[in-house]
Amino acid sequence: MSVEPVDRTIDRRAFLARTAALAAVSAAGVTVALPGVASATGRRSPKPGASLDQPNAYTRPRPEALADPTELTIAEAGWLIRAGKLTPERLVEAYLARISAYDGTYQAFNLVLAEAAVAAARAAARRPRRGVLHGIPLAIKDNYFTEGVRTTANSLLFQDFVPPHDATAVARLKANGGIVLGKTQMGPLATTRATTPAGVVTTVNAWTPTNRNTDPGGSSTGTATAVAGRMATSGIGTQTGGSITAPSNAQNLTGLKPTMGRVSAAGIIPLSYTRDHAGPLARDAKDAAIMLTAMAGEDPADPRTQGLPDVPDLIDAATPVYHRNRVKLRWNTRIGVLPGFASGTSATALARQEYLARLAGIPGVTLVDVPLPEDWSQLTGGTFNAIRLPERSEPFMPYLRTDLRGFGVSVISWLQGALMGGNEFITGQRAKLLLMERVLDQIFDVCDVVVQTDPVPFDILGLPEIAFPIGVNTTGVPIGTILGGLPYGEDRLLSVVAAYQAVTDWHLRRPADPPVAAARARAADAPRLTAEEVAELTQ
Amino acid sequence: MAPTPPTDAELNILITARLAALGIDLEQLPPGTTADPETGSPGRDTVLASLRSFVRGTVTALAAYQLPTPEAGDPETAKALSQQRVPLLYPSISTEWRKA
Predict the structure, then answer these.
(1) Domain residue ranges of chain A, discontinuous segments joined by +
(2) Could you give the 3-state DSSP secondary structure of residue A206?
(3) Tens digit of pLDDT for each residue in A205-262?
(4) How many CB pairs under 8 A join A and B?
């Protein structure tokens, strides 16, 4: 059995003692020695990127996936490439064919790098394999810098911006053999579901391609639609207020928003610097683990990534374990259930009830009722959520002074940020510690992971969240759910989802291909978001 | 005695003056309440109405918020300027950064 996950290796008493000491020191304006936060096990795990060629990274393909390379997960495609039964070029060509046939309807991509992707695939075939990501086509949200390739964040402000280098996360994916297939549509400046900068809805949910009114989730909409619509094996997005988890839930994907600092944000066009998380939108837990393993780790260009626990073996964590042919949890885990999570008779409530029942049947799972922490709705609601807004206005001041119309339909929240005073901003930062203390003391004192009904609270705190499918509603649209974890507890989250996915098949379901005639003919009928609506919906 | 809440006209002056002090001129936006059809930019009056609501609601509520007294603290010394929790930009990262 593998070693313990890292989430419980932080000594709580030392953490709280140090927090209290810091508060006293801050008020008194003096310097004292502070107790360190002890590591309970002292375990240090493998260095990032070291484990992408390990046996558990590869999965023998399902029979139904052998007939169509676009159906393969990363782990399956990597298995075939390693065995010499699939070439990166054939895989890229298969995706380009689907993009050519269907992206007129989906509108998932801002830019498709067809020639470059084919060239990269051919080059990959000539190079030694670098691990399971070798030759895997990926969809990249258009707020990640891509060297020599236009990076717009879907905003008029950056319509001609060509970065001189890759974002760190993109560079790491490429260094591990990933192929950038294209840049994906997103909410303008990462605010809402994907629209034009003027608010006209573009990208559709791959499960209802002829109905633009079905929410595809935002703001990493295009990446989600590309992966769900089998136009890329996997992809990456960013999350400030649910922008990975929401589109993953909406489109039957497994999305992982890591703990703040786990993945470098260097080279990502910012929205809210304390809350911009980079992470994968994948087809299952194993693929999410592979992607995060490639992306994660220290980066000299982003101090937030430094001084943190080493990246654990996420791929092992996402590999189901069996006892006498029965799936069991890799690590015994107490799963916290918030009040009302599965109450009612709606399709979502019924799916949640079935989900909890399936979880409860997995050896090693203990379901635990947990309360909402004191003042939860106040500390996580709209008012305190708004303290992120100066973070978006401050770096954009040059644009606010000269090109307000360049913000398009998104301008209001940037002006709100410019209006908020320093006092209010600091009060909000103090409230973050209060919220963190209560989450640790009132939720995680009795559980290891906790169900989420809204991604925002853990976005405020920078805690990890994993989104994954648990059902479909009466119209065939996926129903997903979210689990949240302790700081740097991605390994435990992946282990729970991997076990759940070993006993269910929701994550294996794919949407039907859209009718080709549905393409852009109906673009004139596309709904449009107003500036007031965007101000309400913005991440 | 609490000050009289500002009127719409007073808030408009506050908002435009604050933004002007930062170098932001709302005159860049279309007049009135009609959005620019090309960029989607809302009209100035629409923006001002939204920002007035933001100041009256969000900013006022945040400014009025009083953090609870830290555990074992003295309420008399826990008001502003004394023993409040520290502001933390990155609560999750700080659990590790405070190890040293």
Answers:
(1) 1-41, 376-427
(2) coil
(3) 999 999 999 999 999 999 999 999 999 999 999 999 999 999 999 999 999 999 999 9
(4) 199
Inspect the interface and report whether the beta carbons of A424 and B63 lie closer than 8 Å.
yes
Q: How far is CA A72 from CA A64, A390, A491, B36, B74, in A?
A: 9, 42, 23, 45, 61
Task: Say what the pLDDT of residue B99 is.
Answer: 58
Give the predicted TM-score (pTM) of the model. 0.92
Dist. CA A417–CA A332, nearest whole Å: 44
Please indicate whether, in this complex, the C-beta atoms of B29 and A411 are within 8 angstroms of each other.
yes
Please report, as a single letter, which amino acid is at residue A452: Q
Tokens 């810098």 correspond to A145
Where does A190-294 show beta strands of DSSP type E? 234-239, 254-257, 277-282
Whether A393 is a known active-site residue: answer no
Closest by Cβ to B46, choosing from A261, A408, A531 = A531
The answer to whether A416 contacts B67, with C-beta atoms less than 8 Å apart, is no
Nearest CA to A214 out of A186, A194, A239 is that of A194
Which residue on chain A is closest to B66 by alpha carbon?
Answer: A427
ipTM of the complex: 0.94
A141 is catalytic: yes
Question: A276 near A391, Cβ under 8 Å?
Answer: no
pLDDT at residue A388 is higher than 80: yes
Question: CB distance A27–B83 less than 8 Å?
Answer: yes
A347 neighbors A479 (Cβ within 8 angstroms): yes
Q: Which two tokens stand for residue A77?
A: 């495609």
- Structure token digits, residue A67: 């007939």
Q: Which of A45, A51, A155, A219 is catalytic?
A: A219
A17 vs B71, more confident: B71
**Cβ <8 Å between A419 and B19:** yes
Tell me which chain B residue has its CA closest to the CA of residue A156: B39
Element containing residue A247 per DSSP (H, E): helix A245-250
The 3-state DSSP class for residue A51 equals coil
Residue B56, CA distances (Å) to A150, A372, A420, B25, B64 in order:
40, 28, 11, 21, 11
Average pLDDT, chain A: 91
C-beta atoms of A426 and B87 within 8 A: yes
Contacts with A424 from chain B: Cβ below 8 Å:
59, 62-63
CB atoms within 10 A of CB A82: 17
Closest approach of B92 to chain A, Cα-based (Å):
6
Residue-wise pLDDT for A439-485, tens only, equals: 999 999 999 999 999 999 999 999 999 999 999 999 999 999 999 99
Nearest CB to B55; choose among A405, A419, A528: A419
Which chain B residue shows the shortest CA-CA distance from A423?
A: B63
Largest CA distance in chain A: 70
Beta-carbon contacts of residue B67 (< 8 Å; ≥ 6 apart)? A427, A430, A431, A434, B78, B84, B85
Choose among A433, A487, A136, A161: nearest CA to A294: A136
Which residues in A lie closer than 8 A to residue B90 (C-beta atoms)?
260-261, 274, 304, 462
CB-facing half-sphere around the CA of A20: CA atoms within 13 A: 11
